[in-house]
Design goal:
The protein is of the alpha/beta class. The protein contains twelve helices and 18 strands. The chain folds into two domains: 306 residues, 3-Layer(aba) Sandwich (Aminopeptidase), CATH 3.40.630.10; 129 residues, Glucose Oxidase, domain 1 (3-Layer(bba) Sandwich), CATH 3.50.30.30. The chain starts with 9 loop residues before the first helix and ends in a 13-residue tail after the last helix. The N terminus is likely disordered.
């Protein structure tokens, strides 16, 4: 590995007690566990964007930033934005099942699984029954397809939303939620998916040949969401106006309570319908908060901005919003490091010759920042590496992307590109390796401090961002 040579300013060299090696960046396992367990608790229902659980997470992060001593930015710890969401209509519509000889039954207990941005009127559709997804794929716009179960993985859900039929009918004994979940991604769901909740309707459906479907549009409204932002002001009279951004998304993919439609793989426990997102990405947020606590002990020369983003799982909504309307001058941001999936070392994609628990950085050769971080790792017995296939492939797969597109050297750092419970309902807090997360967090506090202390800011090594 590259030998360690840390360039400190003359100011720093005159103060040996402030050297990076002497700062004692020892993270707290108890703090990390506490953060992860709160964010990944069932009560937060998977922290989807938007949701009450996401709001609770934002409030928790804000209070923790205050507790460790971070200062607000523009007089607030919240950078508030809005997302467009859909909610079920109070009157979902009407469904008529038709048997031969003109026998009709009006279905009263049903719900649309996905949001409907517009009302739908479908008459005299032929009912067909699909035993599997292959048969579903053969259906046409004249067909209403009956399936006997919801999908049990995200891959199956893709088949649902890309089906060529007119409507999909599911049968389920799950009761509707007391409060309808808000949905955002309506544009992806081209086929209405309707869940029937009454056994008598199911029995009638088995003998029906045709169906009329009248579905009322879901109501659209804007919902407030928050990036959570705190800062450490730099100590250098000139460099303190430059910012190093540390980010991590605090949202996840939500839950399937009340309708049974998965937000990812169900895993082994089919009754677990909450996608807790402990590694993805409560671990990253926990590391961010603990890094902030450690770095408050001896602030670096440059200012550091800590940002917890909403909406990463819905398309980097929070980081895009932040870059579009930064609470500080965008040109003052010299670099960004994004934390993702730092709590598990059982990486499915790690090359065989790379030690378990190694730290991967996306776009490794795109700027000088990854090499600066790798230099700091020498004294920590940690291995920082470039994945030969995924380092570049994943460069635009997380919240570093909007910063890079704004011409700011920005990278995502993680322990795994793919781990066994990724977007799985079993991504629980008790599956994290907290001892290793503790070591990595202390290292990251040192590495960021080192980079923020340098005379030279990170620079792109490529002429054009891919």
């Amino acid at each position: 590995m590259i030998s360690t040579h840390i360039l400190l300013s003359l100011w720093s060299l005159c103060l040996p007690s402030q050297s990076v090696e002497a700062l004692g960046f020892e993270a707290s396992i108890d703090n990390l566990q506490s953060h992860v367990r709160f964010l990944a608790d069932d009560q937060l229902l998977g922290r989807s964007t938007p949701s009450p659980g996401l709001n609770r997470a934002a409030e928790y992060i804000r209070e923790e930033m205050k507790r460790v001593g971070l200062a607000p930015v523009a007089n607030s710890y919240f950078q508030t934005g809005e997302v467009k969401a859909f909610q079920e209509a109070s009157d979902p519509g009407r469904i008529k099942l038709k048997k031969p000889q003109s026998t009709i039954r009006v279905v009263k207990k049903f719900r649309s699984v996905f949001p409907l941005p517009r009302s739908i009127q479908l008459q005299d559709l032929l009912i067909v029954r699909a035993k599997n997804l292959t048969e579903l794929g053969r259906a046409s716009k004249q067909h209403a397809v009956v399936l006997d179960r919801p999908p049990n993985s995200m891959a199956e859900m893709v088949h649902y939303i890309s089906a060529g039929c007119a409507v999909i009918l599911l049968t389920s004994a799950l009761a509707p939620q007391e409060h309808s979940e808000l949905h955002m991604l309506s544009q992806y769901f081209k086929v209405p998916v309707v869940m029937l909740n009454d056994e008598q309707d199911w029995d009638f459906l088995t003998e029906s040949t045709h169906i009329d479907v009248s579905l009322n549009a879901h109501s659209e409204r804007k919902v407030k969401v928050h990036n959570v932002v705190g800062q450490i002001r730099g100590t250098d009279a000139d460099l303190k106006e430059e910012y190093f951004v540390v980010g991590a998304h605090y949202d996840h993919v939500g839950h399937a309570l009340g309708h049974g439609f998965p937000r990812g793989s169900l895993g082994q426990d089919k009754n677990d319908l909450i996608w807790n997102g402990a590694n993805d990405n409560a671990s990253g947020v926990a590391a961010l908060l603990e890094c902030a606590r450690l770095m408050m002990k001896s602030p670096p020369r440059r200012s550091v901005l800590f940002v917890a983003f909403y909406g990463e799982e819905a398309g980097f909504l929070g980081s895009r919003s932040f870059v579009a309307a930064t609470p500080i001058a965008l040109k003052s941001i010299v670099a960004m490091l994004n934390f993702e999936q730092l709590g598990r070392i059982d990486d499915n994609s790690r090359p065989a010759d790379i030690p378990k628990g190694s730290i991967a950085i996306t776009g490794y050769n795109y700027s000088t920042l990854p090499a600066q971080i790798a230099e700091t790792a020498v004294n920590d017995s940690l291995h920082v590496y470039r994945h030969p296939q995924l380092s570049d492939a994943y460069f635009y797969r997380s919240d570093n992307a909007p910063f890079a597109q704004a011409n700011i050297p920005a990278h995502t750092i993680s322990l795994s590109y793919d781990f066994p419970d990724y977007h799985n309902a079993q991504d629980h807090a008790d599956r994290l390796d907290y001892a290793h997360l503790n070591q990595v967090t202390g290292f990251l506090a040192r590495a960021i401090t080192t980079c923020a202390n340098r005379d030279d800011a990170p620079k792109w090594l490529i002429k054009a961002i891919p």
